[in-house]
Amino acid sequence: MAGASPDIARRNNLILAICVAAAVACLPLVVKDVYIQNMLVLTLMYAALSQSWNILSGYCGQISLGHALYFGIGAYATLLLFTKFGVLPWFGMVAGGAIAAVVAAAVGYPCFRLKGHYFVIATIVIAEAGLLLMLNWDWAGAAMGIEVPVRGDSWAKFQFARSKLPYFYFALGLALVAWIVTWKIEDSRWGYWWRAVKDNAEAAESLGVVVFRSKMAAAAVSAFLTAVGGGFYAQFVSYIDPESVMSFQFSLLMALPAVLGGIGTLWGPAVGAAILIPITEVTRSYAGGTGKGFDLIVYGLLVMGIALGRPEGIVGAFSARKRAKAA
Amino acid sequence: MSALLEVRDLTQRFGGLVANADVSIDVRVGEILGLIGPNGAGKSTLFNAIAGVRKPTEGRIGFAGRDVTDLAAPQRCALGIARTFQVVKSFETMSVVENVMVGAFARAASAREAREKARAVLEFTGLGARENAMAQELTPPEKRRLEVARALATEPKLLLLDEAMTGLTPAEARQGVELVRAIRERGVTIVMVEHVMEIVMPLVDRAIVLDLGRVIAEGAPADIVRDERVITAYLGERHRARDA
To answer: Which of A7, B101, B106, B184 is least enclosed, having the fewest CB within 10 Å?
Structure first.
């Protein structure tokens, strides 16, 4: 009986996640190529980011195409706090997360009154406004951006010039944390309430769900995790400018893995990222300098393929089949 | 018997249209009250005002000794008012038990507790065997039951049923009637808006008839069906002509 004991199904899922994480953690033993290690870091990072995006857009149904804003806030908060005030990146990432959560609530306050496409458009516009703001904010480096001052390899300062591996393990940890947060939320009051809000807000209200507050909570959690990912990315690339962390492309790159893998599912973002990011990196390197945007064409084709063949995403298609078999 | 719900001088205007005019009703603890009237009589408007979907233009609504006029739907649910929808609004991407858990979380602290409560309610409403089906796979009468189950999971004092029997076959409607009676046996007060007279009249303790936004009659079903104004307004001139 599938689903007869959800507790056991959930425990099995957790065991699977830990096994997958352990297996991925062993990859550097065989993967010595720095280029591929770099790709693995990005794959894990986008798995984490997409998982975060999925909390607001997948579970709560509020499609955001402005998550680059929170990503940028995390990246800037981490680097600015370090370069201006000497705050270690570990605290900077958490501070960035907290700022992003507050901004998400502030953005959500007017925007969550909008529905459907209007909400999506508002998220895009606000992220673009954030980008423009950063382009003109001199103290934060404006269009020139800011650099991580080189202080030698150090865990405390979270910078490593000689090896990708510390970044790899951090990204893996972040992806696992984002997964576990989602896993935990999925079987909690918020998890059920968010899905109810997505499916039918009016019915949810009649059952005691304060829809507005639910959306705000989802946005705050989602933005927090996204900003931590942004802080990590800033440390990883060690130089940021507004275009390189807040452009619309990041918002898309956070949404696409979840859409491809299965929006509103636990495994969708990770599965989507594992397929999408390597494809991107490979097409980007093969297409060379002329290929800017070519990776986006590949995404477009993939998403169209999914939309036509399996609108519920890869994971969604899989669980539908499992249910059909159980019934 | 004391009043659980008190509606006082409720008026609802939409622009120039007056959907409810000076409606005052009492709902007594433990009764089944029928809210009837022809199309456009203002039943749904009144229903939505009680459920907290729309604030009335004028008038007050009291529930369990509290003024709830300014409270939104979720807060009214927390106080013990639950409703179903005329056009079913299931959470389509969730399973049957998950649908009911959403309601159960109004009182449950943990997912485990919510799931247990939801299963008990599903058992009670006759959907126990369907708990793992997706809501979108249910038949229309099952979906109606799910609406009721979800509302019951919030452990209401007052249950508002909006045309819960509409679209059911006579056999299904009979089962629905049994369910409504069983719910009342559990101590839940019920207000039902219904079109199908043959169903409402034997079931309700009392009926209130609305026409053109006003209460035109109130009383025991047997008296209501003989009331001249009701026959004219609700059953129509044609019906009266045949009786005469």
So the answer is: A7
Which domains occur in chain A, in start order?
6-326 (1.10.3470)
| Architecture in CATH of B1-70+157-244 | 3-Layer(aba) Sandwich (3.40)
Which one, of B132, B78, B87, lies nearest residue B105 by Cα? B78
In 3D space, the residue among A198, A53, A55, A25 whose CA is nearest the CA of residue A127 turns out to be A53
Residue A73 sits at the vertex; the CA angle it makes with A179 and A142, to the nearest 5 degrees, is: 150
Instruction: Name the closest residue on chain A to residue B150, using Cα atoms.
Output: A207
Smallest Cβ–Cβ distance between A199 and the set B73, B92, B153 belongs to: B92
Q: 52-91 in B: which are within 8 Å (CB) of A?
A: 53, 72-74, 77-78, 82-83, 85, 89-91
Looking at chain B, the domain(s) classified CATH 3.40.50.300 span 1-70+157-244
Residue A248 CB neighbours (<10 A): 14
- For chain B, which residues score pLDDT lower than 50? 1, 241-244
For chain A, helix, strand, coil in percent to 5 are 80, 0, 20
User: Which of A192, A198, A205 lies nearest to residue B74, judging by beta carbons?
Assistant: A205
Question: How far are the Cα atoms of A120, A229, B23 from residue A232, in angstroms, in the given order?
Answer: 26, 5, 62
With beta carbons under 8 A apart, name residues in chain A contacting B83: 206
Q: Which pLDDT tens digit goes with each residue over A227-282?
A: 999 999 999 998 999 999 999 989 989 999 998 898 999 999 999 999 988 888 88
Give the ipTM: 0.90
Note whether A193 and A209 are within 8 A (CB): yes
Q: Looking at CA atoms only, how far is residue A68 from chain B in angstroms?
A: 28
Nearest to A206 among B77, B93, B133 (CB): B77
Residues B24-61 pLDDT 10s: 999 999 999 999 888 888 898 999 999 999 999 999 99
Q: Do B73 and A6 touch (CB under 8 A)?
A: no
Distance from CA of A235 to the nearest CA of B (A): 39
Question: Chain B residue closest to A207 (CA)?
Answer: B103
